[in-house]
Amino acid sequence: ISKNTVAPTRRPITSKMIALKICAFAANTVFDSRSIHQSSTMLVWTCVRLIFELLSLIVISEVIGVLTGSDRVRNMVEVGGWWQPVLSAAQENELREIAQKLVAPSKGILAADESTGTFGKRLAAFNLENSVELRQKYRQLLFTTPNLGEHISGVILFEETFNQKTDTGERFVDVLKKAGIIPGIKLDLGIVPLAGTLGEDTTQGLDDLARRAAAFKKGGCEFSKWRCVFHISSRTPSHLALLENAKVLARYASISQQAGLVPIIEPEVLCDGDHDLARAQKVTEQALAYIYKALNDYHVYLEGSLLKPNMVTPGRGFSGKLVTHEEIAEATVRTLLRTVPAAVPGIVFLSGGQSELDATANLNAINRVPGLKPWRLSFSYGRALQAPVLKAWASKNIDAAQKALLVRGKANGLATDGKYEGEQATETAAEPLFIAKHRVDG
Q1: Is the pLDDT of residue 11 over 80?
Q2: 304-324 pLDDT, tens per residue?
Q3: Sign of CA dihedral 139, 141, 144, 149
Q4: Which has the closest alpha carbon to 285: 354, 228, 331, 229?
Q5: Could you say which DSSP state residue 268 is in?
Q6: What is the C-alpha separation between 412 and 208, in angstroms, rounded?
Q7: Cα end-to-end span (Å), the chain
């Protein structure tokens, strides 16, 4: 035997093994032909012994529950015949506190995690060069906006942004923290085709995720985001796409929590197509059901996670009756109540190509839907917050750009409480920000 070979060890006796032994004992007692001829006294003593062992098993199970903490039993894995916690109590507390801060009342998340290519397309619309310097200037404008922390609880960064600094040499991460804003990081590495499907996708980036997550945590980030997309057509989403993307999101969430980052789980049902509201609701329910099954399988600590879903809306090509904000809100809340556990502290919606005004009005209507909603319902918007900012900044009006960001932040903050009453806005504020087959960024 090699000196590196580990000698087999005796497996510890567990409650599961005790139960099996008791069942075997009972079966032998009842069905053994020799037992049939035992005296009635012997049978009585046998039954008493069986009852005693069953009661002992119940007591042992209760003691285990008290020692481990009943609220942590779900978040454990069986190792060597014994249940051990995936996360320590301190890790769980940290994740839960961060998640709750991200969905604080009247606040939401600014998604500033556009990739270099995506941001370049937005700059091209204003005939601006997609250079490192211009991207740094724009992000500096966003993060140094006075009083931004009054409406924004967290900012999702792209890796380039995470490494950038202000003109005075201060890291963007530190600028945000000083403003009372929690820095986060986009961890997925983009959408790729899913083999064996009819044009469906999955997301890459799991291979070195543990290393990257640990590095971003060390660098000051407190949460992360990962996006998967689902397509609606007559033959999609397929079972394969639903299963694969749910597993990818669950693996990401588990690894992220191990690194101390609160995972924002983003399953986006794309609004390409001509499907109606009912079809959008059904597919969103399917996707979320698959995802929360996978999160449970991978022992993800739900209290230390957030969900970033799409609102339930008809496809962009839908030609039927115009759907109201209230109908969208009711379909969205109904979907969430059917699929998202109450343990999740908050849901932060993506804007999904809606106009600035529609994104705010729909969020407001969602929070006004009557009945119990066990989670905070907030926003994690990119285009719906930044569109007017980018337009003003392209005209070299920094003050106007920062003011536009505050206006949209305040409006959406009010919508998280169901207190948005509308506003005077430009014509462009009502224009959709939809991008067909939006496969790159959330």
Answers
A1: no
A2: 999 999 999 999 989 989 999
A3: negative
A4: 331
A5: E
A6: 36
A7: 55
The rounded distance, in Å, linking the Cα atoms of 63 and 50 is 20
Tell me what pLDDT residue 13 has: 47
Alpha carbons 225 and 381: distance in angstroms, whole number = 13
Which of 188, 181, 225 has the alpha carbon at shortest distance from 203? 188
Rounded distance between C-alpha atoms, residue 139 and residue 147, angstroms? 16
Q: Which CATH number fits domain 89-430: 3.40.50.2000, 3.40.1110.10, 2.40.50.140, 3.20.20.70?
A: 3.20.20.70
Single pTM value for the model: 0.81
> In whole angstroms, what separates CA 309 from the centre of its chain?
8
Q: Pick from 150, 151, 209, 156: which is nearest to 182 by CA?
A: 156
- β-bridge pairing 152-157 and 182-186: parallel
189-230 pLDDT, tens digit each: 999 999 999 999 999 999 999 999 999 999 999 999 999 999
Q: Which residues contact 83 (CB under 8 A, 6 or more apart)?
A: 64, 68, 73, 76, 77
- 58 vs 42: CA distance, rounded Å: 25
DSSP bridge pairs for 191 = 203
Cα 101 to Cα 225: distance, rounded to the nearest angstrom? 16
Give the pLDDT of residue 125.
Answer: 87
Query: Is the CB of residue 277 less than 8 Å from the CB of residue 311?
Result: no
Residue that is written with structure tokens 């998280």 in the block = 416
Q: How far apart are CA 394 and CA 119, in angstroms?
A: 13
Point out the residues that are catalytic. 266, 308
Helix (H) or strand (E) holding 320, with range, is none
Q: Which residue has the higher pLDDT, 101 or 48?
A: 101
Question: Residue 1 corresponds to which tokens in the numbers above?
Answer: 């035997």
Rounded to the nearest 10 degrees, how much is the dihedral formed by the CA atoms of 250, 158, 184, 345?
-50
Q: Measuring CA to CA, how many Å separate 25 from each of 67, 98, 160, 203, 302?
A: 29, 51, 65, 52, 40
What whole-number distance in Å separates Cα of residue 435 and Cα of residue 442? 11
DSSP characters for 201-259?
Answer: EEE---TTHHHHHHHHHHTT--EEEEEEEE--SSS-S-HHHHHHHHHHHHHHHHHHHHT
- In sequence order, what E strands does 290-350 have? 306-307, 346-349
Alpha-carbon distance of 434 to 352, in angstroms, equals 7
> Mind listing the pLDDT tens digit for each residue in 256-307?
999 999 999 999 999 989 999 999 999 999 999 999 999 999 999 999 999 9
Question: What does the alpha-carbon distance between residue 198 and residue 193 come to, in Å, rounded to a whole number?
Answer: 9
Both tokens of 371, joined, read: 């009945």
Query: How far is residue 40 CA from its own chain's centroid?
Result: 62
